[in-house]
From TrEMBL, chain A:
It comes from Bradyrhizobium zhengyangense. This is Molybdopterin synthase catalytic subunit. Keywords: Molybdenum cofactor biosynthesis. GO terms for molecular function: molybdopterin synthase activity. One of its GO terms (biological process) is Mo-molybdopterin cofactor biosynthetic process. The lineage of its organism: Bacteria, Pseudomonadati, Pseudomonadota, Alphaproteobacteria, Hyphomicrobiales. Its EC number is 2.8.1.12. It catalyses: 2 [molybdopterin-synthase sulfur-carrier protein]-C-terminal-Gly-aminoethanethioate + cyclic pyranopterin phosphate + H2O = molybdopterin + 2 [molybdopterin-synthase sulfur-carrier protein]-C-terminal Gly-Gly + 2 H(+).
TrEMBL record, chain B:
InterPro entries: Beta-grasp_dom_sf, Mopterin_synth/thiamin_S_b, ThiS/MoaD-like. SUPFAM superfamilies: MoaD/ThiS. This is Molybdopterin converting factor subunit 1. It comes from Bradyrhizobium zhengyangense. Gene3D superfamilies: 3.10.20.30.
Length: 160, 83
């Protein structure tokens, strides 16, 4: 008996609307019995940034490139780990603390690949997908500065 | 070629996109940044720290020494802060 060929559906969406994590996992795993692990990461708008209070964040993106850049990293993740499905949803627009911003789902037969691929995708989303955050606080509005720690997190995955 | 600006680069330049026709002597991304910077105070302000500016040609990240010949769309933006 031949084993079923693993397929890896990819879903990449940039949208203003919120997402439902449980529904996205159900879509990814529907009619699949080869998936043994789904790791989900969600990024949420928080109220504090380096000790200042945030009232809201506005996410801007580069339409076209954002989808293509995410796809390039999803393809790389699929080449590096045995994945059975990947979903990336990034919201754009204005968000208040507590609201969802980003969702990454990585499915695999075993947990290790799913954990690592989800972390890899998030590290690259932060440093190379063309999105920018502007924050509103009591003192006014300003663009969020990139953090060196995010570059260092992405650099960990570079192949030597 | 079409040029697009995002986030604070867009705000400083004062427009989201435009069509430009740089002279043939402008060959690389860094030369294009220098050429744009000389256009007005707004561009000079947007590109005052050229090393901070990130560039994409036809939706792919490129370095400052990348050639611009044949580019359909060049985008300038600050370091990314999504996720």
């Amino acid at each position: 008996m031949s084993s079923p060929v693993a397929t890896c559906p990819i879903a990449i969406r940039i949208q203003e609307d919120d997402f439902d994590i449980a529904r996205e996992i159900a879509v990814l795993t529907k009619s699949r019995t080869d998936i043994g692990a789904v790791v989900s990461f969600s990024g949420i708008c928080r109220a504090d940034e380096d000790s200042s209070k945030i009232a809201a964040l506005t996410l801007e993106h580069y339409p076209g490139m954002a989808e293509e850049e995410i796809k390039r990293h999803v393809d790389e993740a699929i080449s590096r780990w045995p994945l059975n499905g990947v979903t990336v949803i990034h919201r754009v627009g204005r968000f208040e603390p507590g609201q969802n911003i980003v969702l990454v789902l990585a499915a695999s037969q075993h947990r290790r690949a799913a954990f690592e691929a989800a972390e890899f995708l998030m590290d690259y989303l932060k440093t190379s997908a063309p999105f920018w955050k502007k924050e509103e606080s009591a003192t006014g509005t300003g663009w969020v500065e990139a953090h060196a720690r995010d570059d260092e997190a992405a650099a960990r995955w570079a192949k030597s | 070629m079409k040029v697009k600006y995002f986030a604070w680069v867009r705000e400083r330049v004062g427009k989201a996109e435009e069509i430009i026709e740089p002279p043939a002597t402008v060959r690389t991304v860094e030369e294009l940044i220098a050429w744009l910077s000389a256009r007005s105070e707004a561009y000079a302000y947007a590109f005052e720290k050229p090393k901070v500016i990130r560039t994409a040609i036809d939706h792919a990240h490129v370095k400052a020494d990348a050639a611009i010949a044949g580019a359909r769309e060049i985008a300038f933006f600050p370091p990314m802060t999504g996720g």
